Amino acid sequence: MQQFDIVIVGNSAAGLQAVRTIRRHSSRVSVALVDREACPAYSRVLTPYFIGGKTARQNLFIADDAFYRDMGVTTLFGQAALSVDPDRRELRLADGSSLGFNALLLALGSEARPFKPGSERVSTLRHLADADRLAALLQPARCVTALGAGLVSVPVLSHLSPEVERHLVVGSDRIFSRLLDAESAAVLEEHFQASGVTLHKREEISEVLEGERLRLSLASGKNLDTDALLVGKGVLPNTLLAREAGLAVSDGILVDDCCRTSCPAIFAAGDAAQGRDYVTGETTVQGNWITAVEQGEVAARNMLGLNQLYEGSMKNNITEVFGLDVAAIGCCSDAVGRTVVHGSLASRRYRKIFLDEKERVVGAVLIGETNDSGVYYQMVRARLPFPGRRLMQGDAGYAAFTRRIA
User: Fold this and answer.
1) C or N: which end of the chain has fewer Cβ atoms within 10 Å?
2) At what angle do helices 13-25 and 289-303 cross, to 10 degrees?
3) In angstroms, what CA-CA distances link 223 with 142, 165, 204, 325?
């Protein structure tokens, strides 16, 4: 059995940041990185561009073999982690081998929710193999339907050729229901429909029938014929490994403010970790790239004994859909009592700011232009009071304010 100071399971945002942080502070610590995909790290955010033919496959990769070699990391790619023994500090792999560790980081990510019945023309999008399959499946398609209006389905539809007929089946009353309030979602829905997308809200797919085309039977009784179906209806944090090891698990793997699990030698970060939300104080699985990077950094520092506390994660999602940049930062809930709106879809500069009872910024939705999203992120992090509409207008007040918080 090989023995390492630190073993990392997961080769995306949290795992990569942990590697960088470890090497920034120590060149001596031995590190192994395990991942079931047999390739270097890649960006899932870019896969819709690849599927839509807007970027080459090689542009998806954010690390190469030289990165791991230069970092002095032993890589075990194409290897699934089967079980963890917290008492013996052992990680067992699918090939029957085991790794010993002093500290273990579970950066396991999440999976697409399963969908049945299956079909060769039905696919999820979570891994590189899914992207390869979808790129081939959608290339000849004249009509594509997506189930679920989240950060998987919508970007894929938006990067398809405008000549493709596009349908979006949404179980809730709006798109991006986990990201946006109803008003902001309505602004985007208007743009989607203007871009040629047919929305089917408060609908579910009850049956998929095979034929020359796929026939989708909807809960309302309507039928929809399509060439391909992309299922993007939610994700599930990968918690099985932790659960079977006896770690505390709820929606995700429960972690404290050090990103430590219920076992002192085991840490978790990224889409599988459930920690404190900075704004609400409640535990949540945030599921965004920046949170994964932040948690990977904190976990790595604590595995090295450098003792760092994490103030909590924040929603911070930025995407491009149908030619519009969209950012959702902090708490963007219908339940927030006071909001300030400026701009419109027509001006391609829409701002909605969410304020608490002390007039502090707790969230922001930006549609059209999102270059100043970092300013709003810092306002939420610093619990700053709303400085007034001049900031939203992007005039001299914006420049003055950015100098003040820099």
Assistant:
1) C
2) 40
3) 17, 15, 11, 32
Query: Is pTM beyond 0.90 here?
Result: yes
Q: Token pair of 47, please?
A: 């896969």
Helix (H, G, I), strand (E, B) or coil at 95: coil
Instruction: Name the segment(s) of the chain with CATH classification 3.50.50.60.
Output: 2-47+57-111+236-303, 114-231
Say which CATH architecture domain 323-405 belongs to: 2-Layer Sandwich (3.30)
Give the CATH number of domain 114-231; options: 3.40.50.1370, 3.50.50.60, 3.30.70.990, 3.30.420.40.
3.50.50.60
Q: Tally helices (H) and strands (E) across the chain.
A: 11, 25
Give 338-373 pLDDT, tens digit per residue. 999 988 888 888 999 999 999 999 999 999 989 889
CATH fold of the domain at 2-47+57-111+236-303: FAD/NAD(P)-binding domain (3.50.50)
DSSP string for 158-171 = HTS-TTSEEEEEES
Name every residue whose Cβ is closer than 8 Å to that of residue 95 and which is 6 or more positions away in sequence: 79
Q: How far is CA 53 from CA 45, 138, 150, 374, 388, in A?
A: 14, 10, 21, 30, 42
Q: Tokens standing for 155?
A: 């970007």
Residue spans of beta strands (DSSP E) within 300-380 = 316-321, 324-330, 338-342, 350-355, 361-368
